Amino acid sequence: MAEGARKPGKVAVDRSEGFGERLLGLLLDRAHELPPQLIAPLIAEEVGKIGGRDVSVLLQDYEQLTLVPLPGRRLVAGEPEPIDDSHAGRAFLGAAVVEVPQADGVRMYLPLLDGSDQVGVLALTVDTLDDDDRRLLRRLTRLVADLLVTKGSYTDQFLQARRCGEMSVAAEIQWSLLPPLRLSVPQVEVAGILEPAYKVAGDSFDYALNDDVLHVAVIDAMGHGLGAAVMATAAIGAYRHSRRADVGLSEIYAFMDQVIAEQFGPEHFVTAQMMRLNTATGHLQWVNAGHPAPLLIRNHDVIRVLESRTTLPVGFGGEEPRVSEQMLQPGDRVLCFTDGLIEEHEVGGEQFGLEQLVDVVMRVGRAETGVRAMVRTLSHMLKQERGGITSDDATVFLIEWRGGTADHLAIVP
């Protein structure tokens, strides 16, 4: 449009391409047709344009104990780094950049975030560093994370890199069924973990954030091995199908019950907890189908076990369930778990029990402020407290309600 023809009141915008836009734009332009095996050299090339070298991509292993290097051309693939005791682990758990001065420059560890879920860490070394470099590297890292997740749908290489043990077929099914292990928006955050990571079978969880409503389900299919994994898959599929039909919690239970009963017969069942949280008001509703009652945590203390009338497990043809309700306060956390956490015991010994679980939850809650870090530490500490025994699946799923709004994120300053 000619200058004289510009509409009155229109502000001229500088559309020229700067260095940062050109760098990130080239990555985006190539990404759509890039085969997965060329992601590594492309990342190294892009980092090199900013003066970075010795690039490593570290991915979280399934047990959430280490960050393992992704092999690839032009990437440095060293030893796995422990999440609990390393610079890379600190960047991963804190979702924040860690800078370590070295004799030949600065070693940077940048969290790879897919949305709010931590994928891993990008590590690199630069000679010098200023705020422009930091900003550009943060944005580049976010694009790299999205690229790893997107291209990971087309290859096994990234999943293979994350494995530090032999995985059962049942666990393979369960991991492919899960949503991202973490979701964080201003109003609410959730995080979950399964154990034993390489042998899990019947436990699973699912969630979705639809407008102002967070939907959550935690399930435990009876039995072990492949049969339990198949039943859990059917239960989660039925849950998603009915949830997307926009029906109430009672109707969701009824549909899941029908699917499990018809497919697996009257002697098979799935315990389940289905929840809805209004993220604008803090109004929590849930249906308990034979599942352990969740814990309500406030200011690091377990203030209440959310006991409620339960209905029969899914598949047993229970009556229409009563929907329980609780108003949350900003900062409240709700911890859901499967019975593998409290029923575990050594042969001839006592069960771990709810009382010990509550004690560990409060200890970990005071030590770990973040939701994802708390879930991870809680799962690992509970395994230690139970003597390292995992004869049954054990799932932890944590919800933190914060309130407020996210509307400001849709406004470009």
Automatic annotation (TrEMBL):
Pfam short name (any one): SpoIIE
Keyword Thylakoid belongs to the record: no
Boundaries of every PPM-type phosphatase domain copy: 185-401
Organism superkingdom: Bacteria
Keyword tags: Hydrolase
KW Transmembrane (keyword) present: no
InterPro entries given in the database record: Bact_Sigma-Reg (IPR052016), PPM-type-like_dom_sf (IPR036457), PPM-type_phosphatase-like_dom (IPR001932)
Name of the protein described by the UniProt record: Serine/threonine-protein phosphatase
